[in-house]
Amino acid sequence: MLFQRVIQSFVGRQLLVTAQLVSVHQQNHLDEHKITKCCTEVSITNVTAPILGYRIQKKRPPCVLAVIFETTEGEVCSHWRQTWVIGKIRDKTFIIVLKKINHRDIDITL
After folding, report:
1. Measuring CA to CA, which of 4, 42, 43, 96 is 20 to 30 A from 64?
2. In what order do the strands lie in the sheet with 74-78?
């Protein structure tokens, strides 16, 4: 009788451990296939492709704070503190403002 209880207890623990391992494996498997539509890493390499636009991504884990440049070659996640990133944002913003002004037929001579 005692032997049966020991065996039942052992088998019960083994089943519990197996169920926990299966649960952890399934969760890890799901995590591997989650689609993250944000930058989880950033680059410090200067973007050389023509830039079509940009947007700022807020930090919301797993997403990191980044400037996402839309280029002719695709999107690039860039570190927001890089001097060249700030310069490209200023240039792009200036061009956008000029286009809006020109669209309104306002004559500006420099």
Report:
1. 96
2. 51-57, 66-71, 74-78
Question: What pLDDT shows up at residue 11?
Answer: 45
Cα(28)–Cα(48) distance, integer angstroms: 37
Strand-strand pairing, 51-57 and 74-78: unpaired
Only one residue has tokens 């956008």, namely: 96
pTM to 2 decimal places: 0.57
Which residues contact residue 76 at a Cβ distance below 8 angstroms, ignoring those fewer than 6 apart?
Answer: 43, 47, 49, 68, 69
The answer as to whether 108 is a domain residue is no
Q: How confident is the model at residue 14 (pLDDT cuts 50, 70, 90)?
A: low
Token pair, residue 98, equals: 């000029």
Q: Are residues 55 and 99 in the same domain?
A: yes
